[in-house]
Automatic annotation (TrEMBL):
Pfam families: DUF218 (PF02698). It comes from the Bacteria. This is Uncharacterized SAM-binding protein YcdF (DUF218 family). Residues 43-161 form the DUF218 domain. It comes from Kineosporia succinea. The lineage of its organism: Bacteria, Bacillati, Actinomycetota, Actinomycetes, Kineosporiales.
Length: 218
């Protein structure tokens, strides 16, 4: 594994990275939802948002995927919760949804869990990997239209710092490429609202596909 981006694809990767980060200016919302993945930084960010007063409680959602079963054998949401508690988040402000296996289920299962408890939020902060923000936002807008305000948050890491933190540049680039494809594919399938895809994003996507970053394509 390498933790540095190859120079020949750096510009294209930067285009996709900037596209998926929505750069929302965060305001207080009714709750935060941490979407499960291989990246424990999602739980760190959710904990920071709670401790900083942006969200009063957190739902962690996620079972396992092939990419997370070894790292989080008891489930993504369970490990996220434990990490957040270790950072000072009180147990009583954390809910765990441990069945979701994709972003759509993250949203719908979290929504259903909250409804079972009589909670109908008007505003939500989705806490995700940086390159998952746009897809998470589009998915939430489609599947949970009752929520008035949806904002996205991630750890504020620069691209190179994120790659170094994950420790695998190929994985990060492949995930970026896969999420870019899903923006249009999932909208076409009715899983998410449509999002604009600028020409420079399309060009960067095709450049990276041609360079072999195809492992996360559907």
């Amino acid at each position: 594994m390498t933790a540095q981006l190859p120079p020949n694809v750096r510009t294209a990767v930067r285009v996709l990275w900037d596209y998926h980060d929505l750069h929302h200016v965060l305001t207080p919302t009714d709750l935060g939802i941490g979407l499960g993945s291989h990246d424990l930084g999602v739980a760190t960010c959710a904990a920071q948002l709670y401790l900083g007063g942006t969200v009063p409680f957190i739902v962690f959602t996620g079972a396992n995927a092939p990419t997370t079963i070894e790292r989080f054998p008891r489930g993504e949401a369970v490990h996220y919760r434990e990490h957040a508690l270790g950072l000072g988040v009180p147990d009583e402000v954390v809910l765990v949804e441990s069945r979701a296996r994709n972003t759509g289920e993250n949203i719908t299962f979290s929504r259903d869990l909250l409804r079972e408890r009589g909670v109908e939020p008007r505003s939500v902060t989705l806490v995700t990997r940086p390159y998952q923000q746009r897809r998470a936002y589009a998915t939430c807008r489609k599947l949970w239209p009752e929520v008035g305000t949806v904002q996205c948050a991630s750890l504020p890491l620069a691209l190179d710092d994120y790659v170094a933190r994950i420790g695998d540049a190929d994985r990060v680039v492949s995930m970026l490429v896969g999420d870019t494809q899903r923006i249009e594919v999932y909208a076409d399938r009715g899983f998410a609202v449509e999002q604009p895809v600028p020409d420079e994003v399309r060009a960067a996507f095709h450049e990276l596909v041609d360079a072999g970053y195809t492992s996360r394509l559907i």
